[in-house]
Amino acid sequence: MSDQLLTQARALLMDGDPVGAWRRLARLATDTRDIATWLAADRLLSRMSQTSTQAPFLVVDEPPARGARRRLRVAVLSSHTSGQLTAALRVAAAAHGLDLVTAESGYRSFEQDILDPSSWLSTFAPDVVVLVADQREVRLAEVGEEPAAELAAELQRWRGLWQRLRERTGSVVVQTSFVPPAVDSLGNHGASHPAGRRHQLRRLNLELAVQAPPGVHLVDAEMVAFRTGAPAWTDERYWYLSKHAVGLAALPALATAVMDVVAAAIGLARKLVVVDLDNTLWGGVIGEDGLAGIVLGGGPAGEAFQDLQDFLIALKTRGLVLAVCSKNNPDEARLPFEAHPDMRLTLADFVAFEASWDPKPEVIARLAASLDLGLESVVFVDDNPAEREAVRVALPQVGVVELPDDPQLFRAALADFPGLQTVGITAEDSRRTQAYRARGQAREAAGQAGSREDFLASLQMRGTIEPLLDTNLARVVQLVGKTNQFNLTGRRHGTEAVQRFDADHRSVVWAVRLRDRFDDHGLVGVLIAVPNKEDPEILEIDTMVLSCRVLGRTAEFSLLAALRQWALDRGFREIVGHFVPSGRNAPAAGALSEAGFQRTSHPEWAGAGSSGGPDQSLGAPAPAEVWRLSLDDASVRDPGFVRLDVLQLHT
User: Fold this and answer.
1) Whole-structure pTM value
2) In what order do the strands lie in the sheet containing 98-104?
C-alpha cells in the first residue's frame, strides 16, 4: 500500500494537486516504517515546500506547503550522522500536518553550536530543537570510580545545555534518551552494578526525565529501540561505515516518536477517539450473534479485545475523550455495555454514543461539531477497511488507524498512531469526558430556552480570577500553548516566560475558573497584560485565551471588565489589545470591538513582540488589528451573565 501512496502522490503533484499529494504522504507516514519509502517521500515533500533561503540557515518566512496545518523551524543537533534522520523527521511531521524547515549541526559539533553565541542557531531561530545524542557522548566510565559524582556531573552538563538553548532560542527542546550499548564487558551484571556504565546510563535517563524543566521534553529512545528490535536499532556496520549511531531501519520509528512529542508540546495532539463496535471492541456482530455469541474475554482473541478497551480507558484517564460511531441498532449496540460481564468500557466512558445507519463520515463530522472540535483533532478506529477508506476520502483531516487483520495487534496499532502522545497531565485532563458531557447538557438547555439571553441567565455562571500559583502554573501554560479558537494573538509562552511576566508587579497573569449549574469547568482562561515599554500609563494585553468549552458564554467581557477596573485602580490611562488573525481564531475576532474598544487606523506587527514579551508565537508574524480602550471615558460593555470574583492579586 505504501508504494501505491507514493505513486499516487507523485501523480497528484504532477497533475497540479499538491494538497492531494500532501495527504497521501501524510498517510504514508502512518502506514509504513520502511526507510527507503520514507526517503523517497521526503524528496517529494521537498518539491512541495515553499521554503527559500537567503543565506546559510536564514529562512524566508513563507506559507506552509499546501495541505499542511503549520510550518515549523526545527534544528537537529546530533552527535552522529543525521541527514537520514532529519529526512525521516520531515516525513513523520507530515502525519501531524507540519511542514518542517530543518537545519542540522555538523558531525559532533552539537555542543559547540549550543555554547557558541554566534553559531547558526541564532540566525536560524528554531521553534523546536531536537537533540539526538548517542550514548557514546556520555562521559561515564565502563566502571566508574566515583559513580555518584560522575552521574551528577553528567546531569549538570546536559541541564546546562538545555538552559543555554532555552536562553538563546526560546525554543521547545526535545531530546532523545540514551540507549545502553548492546555490548557490555560486565555482561548481565552491568545492569545492577552501581558503578557500571549500563546502570549509570539508565539512572541518567531517569534523572533527566525527572529534572527536565518546562519547555524541555525527553523521548524514550530505549522504548523505541525495544520495539524496533536490537538488530534494527544497533547495526554496527552503519557506525563504522558512516557514523550512524542508529540503524537506518529504525529511523522512521525514532522520527515518529520524536515528532509525536513535538506535536504534543506545541498543542497539536489529537483529542477525540471515535471507535466502531462490532469486531473492533469485541469479536462478532451483536445484532446477529447476540450477547452470548460475541467474543470478549475467555481466551486469546477475547482478551485482546479487552486489552484494547483497557488502552482506551487509559487514554481517557489522561485526557482524550471517546465516542462511538457504529452502524447498528441503538439498543443492540448498548447491550454489551449494559449486560456483558467481560466488558471493560462502560457507557459512561463515552462523551457521545451514535449507533445508526448513517454514513460514518457524516456521523464523525456531526460528533466533532457537537463537541466544538476540529476534524484534525479526531482519530477513527474501525476494523472495516471500506469504512476506513470512506472516512479518509470524505474527511482527510481525520486520523484513521490502519488496524491489522489480527485483533491481537489492535492495541499496538492504536498505540503507534501519531498524535496520541502527551507531555503532561493536569487535573482538567482527567475529567475532560465529564466536561464535554456537561457541555452537551448545556446545549440541550439552549435548545429549550426562549432566547439566548434566557439561556445564558439560566446557566447561573460564577467564576474566579486568581493569580499565578504553583498549583495552576502547569494548566496556565497548557492553555496558552494549546488554545487556538479564542486566542487573541496566538502567542505561545512557556513556563519561564509566564513566570517572568508575573514577576513584574505592574503586570497581570490571571487564571480564570468558571462553573455553571451543569459543571465546574475548572481553569478555562488566561489573561496576561503588561505595561507598554514606551508609555508606562498604557497597559497592553499580551495574551488572552479561553477554552473552547466556554465559548459563547460572554466570560471574555467579564474578564475585560475586571481588567479595566484593575488598571484604573493603578493609574493606567489606556488599555491596548491586539487581534492577530490566524485562520483558526475567528471566535475571538469580535471580542475587543464588542467590549467597547476602538480600533486604530494603523496596523502593528504582533509577532514583533509589541508588548515586549518573550516566546512569541510559532511561525511568521502576522499583521495585528490594534484596539484601544480609554479608561477616562469608556467602560467595558459586559452583559453581566458571568459573575467573576477577583481573588488576591498584585497590589
Assistant:
1) 0.74
2) 98-104, 70-78, 128-132, 172-176, 216-219
